[in-house]
């Protein structure tokens, strides 16, 4: 079917001096947001959250290239990673894991995207796994007009990321000077989020103009075009639409209440492991 483009959604800003976030209201996008369950553009200093569990989805933190500081990501599987600007930690929580993420350096602001990617029913109970790439490990695509695409997850043109999650997904960080296009497979959705500049999203006879801190969702198969009149920074997130019931409660995203209760029981029984909190700075 032809590509459909949603109405524009502007981010809501909340927070304070040590923690601020621009949140895209994915509920307003309905099923076209699937498999993405959360998209936050955050800036943080200090330690806003202690160790906590997740299950049924992947919790993804992508450190943007303009971040002053690095991300420290710890989990109950024994990983303790420090990832700098341009890097990513993909916590594939699945059946359940404990983790904690904080700025690695005291007093240096961490700027990144927090993304929750839902898992389909067949993957919700697989063993948890944590994947990561440092900034210099992320492959890039460039053209002679100055357009640049960091292929953080998935593929673009002839460039493929070495980070391979349980279910296919694309995370493309684009610095655009003119225009770019990419194919959207049938059954896949894409979320286009603009960090800086203005972008015109085109597909078939449809188009939508976005400014900074706004997003649109697209669905259907075909060619999607992004056009800019001045330099812009855009992130595109794309995956297969999950047509299954969703029941989200607290840190768990499952298909029904029973599964959430089972995940909560696993957590309290210690089956998701243990993670002692870091000492406060």
3D architecture notes:
The mean pLDDT is 95. The chain contains one helix and 27 strands. The chain has 281 residues and is mainly β. The protein has one helix at residues 257-268, and strands spanning 4-5, 9-10, 12-15, 19-23, 36-44, 52-54, 57-63, 71-75, 80-83, 88-92, 97-103, 110-118, 129-133, 140-142, 148-153, 155-156, 159-160, 169-176, 179-184, 188-196, 199-203, 206-210, 214-219, 222-227, 232-240, 247-249, 252-254. Strand 21 (199-203) and strand 22 (206-210) form a beta hairpin. The radius of gyration is 18 Å and the shape is globular. 4% of the residues lie in helices and 50% in strands. The chain has a single domain, classed as Jelly Rolls (Sandwich), CATH 2.60.120.10. The strands form six sheets. Strands 1, 2, 14, 15, 18, 20, 23 and 25 form an eight-stranded antiparallel β-sheet that branches.
What would a concise description of this structure say?
This protein is mainly beta. The chain has one helix at residues 257-268; strands at residues 4-5, 9-10, 12-15, 19-23, 36-44, 52-54, 57-63, 71-75, 80-83, 88-92, 97-103, 110-118, 129-133, 140-142, 148-153, 155-156, 159-160, 169-176, 179-184, 188-196, 199-203, 206-210, 214-219, 222-227, 232-240, 247-249, 252-254.
